[in-house]
């Protein structure tokens, strides 16, 4: 296939099955000229065949990738296109699908364990309340700070489900194990333990927020938001 540039647009031209005069030249002859570097950059040899490789440089939304890919497939089905954006989009789609089923399975297992342990729906809700509140607050803080949910920091949600239910369950156990006169003191003691657990998690896991790598930094900030909010709602 060939790509012809005309102004702002690229036109895809299928290579004719009948060799043109310039196409009959041997690749070694072409490489012998002064444009050898250009030819080596755009002419790729693979298993005895030569493939034309072209680069399209664009910025922002001035180039509609999906429209281009549809037109390219319609004109030349055997042509292939790749870029950092396309690879990231495909990877993000695969991770989103896997994350959805993983999050659903993890949440179902947590709910099953709580159902097998507690005797009432009220106790289950009290145990899960920090999870619900923490997830909502974390997503809200991410929106306010301009942080997008990606396939890296989305994994923090699974951590929040496990740790948030732990916080609520520990507080609930300490409070319900004593009479109402001692419940206040037990709540304060368990609240201190939850606070210390949240701070140590933020100090360790949340320190990723200060790394130079953007994706890893987003994991750290999402952890800080989620753990802090979950601990707050557990108190």
Counting helices, strands and paired strands, the structural category is mainly alpha
Helical residue percent? 55-70%
Kindly provide the name of the CATH class of the largest domain.
Answer: Mainly Alpha
* Integer average pLDDT: 76
Looking at CATH, the homologous superfamily of the largest domain is Multidrug efflux transporter AcrB transmembrane domain
- The CATH topology annotation of the largest domain reads as Multidrug efflux transporter AcrB transmembrane fold
Pick out its properties.
235 residues; mainly alpha; Multidrug efflux transporter AcrB transmembrane fold; two-stranded antiparallel sheet; two-stranded antiparallel ribbon; 8% strand
Characterise this structure.
This protein is 63% helix and 8% strand. The termini are far apart. The N terminus is likely disordered. The chain folds into 2 domains: 74 residues, no CATH class; 151 residues, Multidrug efflux transporter AcrB transmembrane fold. α5 packs across α8, α6 runs antiparallel to α7 and α7 runs antiparallel to α8. It has 8 helices and 4 strands, in the order ββααββαααααα. It is mainly α and 235 residues long.
Question: Outline of this structure?
Answer:
This protein has two domains: 2-75, no CATH class; 84-234, Up-down Bundle (Multidrug efflux transporter AcrB transmembrane fold), CATH 1.20.1640.10. 63% of the residues lie in helices and 8% in strands. The protein contains eight helices and four strands.
